[in-house]
UniProtKB/TrEMBL annotation:
<dbReference type="InterPro" id="IPR025235">
    <property type="entry name" value="DUF4178"/>
</dbReference>
<dbReference type="Pfam" id="PF13785">
    <property type="entry name" value="DUF4178"/>
</dbReference>
<feature type="domain" description="DUF4178">
    <location>
        <begin position="61"/>
        <end position="202"/>
    </location>
</feature>
<feature type="compositionally biased region" description="Basic and acidic residues">
    <location>
        <begin position="44"/>
        <end position="56"/>
    </location>
</feature>
<protein>
    <recommendedName>
        <fullName>DUF4178 domain-containing protein</fullName>
    </recommendedName>
</protein>
<feature type="region of interest" description="Disordered">
    <location>
        <begin position="28"/>
        <end position="56"/>
    </location>
</feature>
Length: 211
């Protein structure tokens, strides 16, 4: 969602990584979807990477060098998340000089007979200055964001994340009129952090991997 890298972090580094965790979730902003069973003679929904020549981001491993568009990162950790049968992975990408981003990858069914597809999002933290998620509209950076979903997911940590090996993640998701996605999250009752999501197009990710 690879051998774990176990590193004892100094307090300063832990604080940096925990702050970067503001981007450690993909947005669950969508209506519930159900994949209907295939009718006789019809095939099941296809694997989203089956007919693609692009790198499959579901195969990223901790330790990989990951190129996202023009930027070079190292995948230093991963969170494997589950909620009500759904699964997705968050990869912690180290850009160097203690600069981090999270890349979320999830395989999702389409609506009513549409094929499976990959949802890949790059997260950037948002300075919300102590703001907490409300159950009504809120304004961030001059934009109005409206609530769309909130809940709690379980996670398992791999490699270096600055987070417990296992835990719970509370989240609250919002969408602006222009389609921008905003997510608040906190780990095991900690402080709320916020991040924006940016979808990535096929072919924008590649990986260098040691043998």
């Amino acid at each position: 969602m690879t051998t774990a890298i176990v590193i004892v972090l100094g307090l300063a580094t832990v604080v940096v990584v925990l702050g970067a965790f503001a981007t450690a979730r993909r947005t669950r902003a969508r209506e519930p979807v159900r994949t209907p069973p295939a009718a006789p003679g019809e095939s099941q929904p296809r694997d989203p990477a089956a007919d693609s020549d692009f790198f499959d981001p579901r195969t990223i491993r901790v330790g990989d060098t990951v190129y996202v568009e023009a930027a070079r990162y190292r995948a230093v950790g991963a969170l494997h998340c589950t909620m009500q049968g759904e699964k997705w992975t968050e990869y912690l990408l180290d850009e160097g000089a203690r600069r981090y981003n999270w890349l979320s990858v999830e395989e999702r069914p389409g609506k009513e007979g549409e094929p499976l597809h990959l949802e890949v999002l790059l997260w950037t933290d948002v300075p919300t200055q102590g703001m907490v998620p409300a159950r009504h509209m809120l304004i961030v950076d001059g934009l109005e964001f409206y609530p769309i979903e909130r809940g709690t997911a379980a996670f398992r940590s791999e490699g270096t994340t600055g987070l417990p090996e296992r835990g719970l993640l509370d989240f609250a998701d919002y969408r602006a009129g222009d389609g921008r996605l905003l997510s608040f999250q906190r780990v095991q009752g900690g402080q709320w952090e916020a991040s924006y999501a940016r979808p990535l197009t096929p072919g924008s990710i590649r990986v260098d991997r040691l043998p």
